[in-house]
Please model this.
Amino acid sequence: MTSTSRLPLLAGLPLAVGAGLAIPVQGRINGALGARLNDGIAAAVVSFSTGLVVMILISLLLPRGRAGLARILPAVRSRAFPPIYVLAGCIGAVFVFAQSFTVGLLGVALFTVATVTGQTVSGLLVDRLGLGPAGKKPVTGIRIIGCVLTIAAVAWAVSPRFASGSAPGTDGGPASLVLPLLLPVAAGFLMSFQQAMNGTATVHYGTPIAATLVNFVAGCLVLWTALAVKVSVAGPGNPLPGEWWYYLGGPMGCVFIGLGALLVRSLGVLVTGLGMIAGQLLGSLALDVVLPGPGTVVAPATVLGTILTLAAIILATLPWPRGALCRQRPVG
Model:
């Protein structure tokens, strides 16, 4: 598919869901690695560094990857898009750090609700501002209701984990969760901006491979700098583990960053984000059934909340007739 072609909703939305499946896998891996190393920054560095190695190999081995590499510098020099877009990977670094640092502290349930809330709200905003390659998209009553239902459904789906006990590493009081929750909320909020920036860059690079590579380069620069400061102040954490699966977080990131950059041109930022949220819930449910972790709860609310999330996403993405529920606001 060329950079100028667009996918129809029925083809693009399943791809967004498939991309979202990689997020809970990455979260489980990075959270476990952060706990093993006793260092969330080091875990994020490992994740981004392995992802960078994968993207370098793909960029050099595939003809489309080499063509994308050749377009990066000319696109940046000609200011085909705002130069700050090359720093989209810094947002990815924040997200991976949030995974590594807070999943073990808050638990998967709170982390999921926090990131979904931030991402859903910012998806509306980014589409309304027209920051993505799909241009401006109106904020309608149907889309707002779909977003609110999505957040509520996600909270319902993970509610059994709330009931099973307090978040690990806290005293169980709500006040102890406020500050740790701010990081995943902020990371989720910034993800929509990252997708818009990557999608715009992909149009000019001609391939999401180049946009994904630039993401990992920028993220690695930020994370390695942070790790150097941390080590100089507090010393290194635990040694790297020998188990191979701890190093799969980076490749998982390549999947959802690359597909996200490809899909926002066709679907818009909000719909791409909602589709990835659906995949995130489905992937989390599958992980909890097949490879349950400590404190895992798969209750009827988990399944029903996941189904309601899918219904809410369909509500927000269907091409409702103009004026459905309430009048659309003008785009311009």
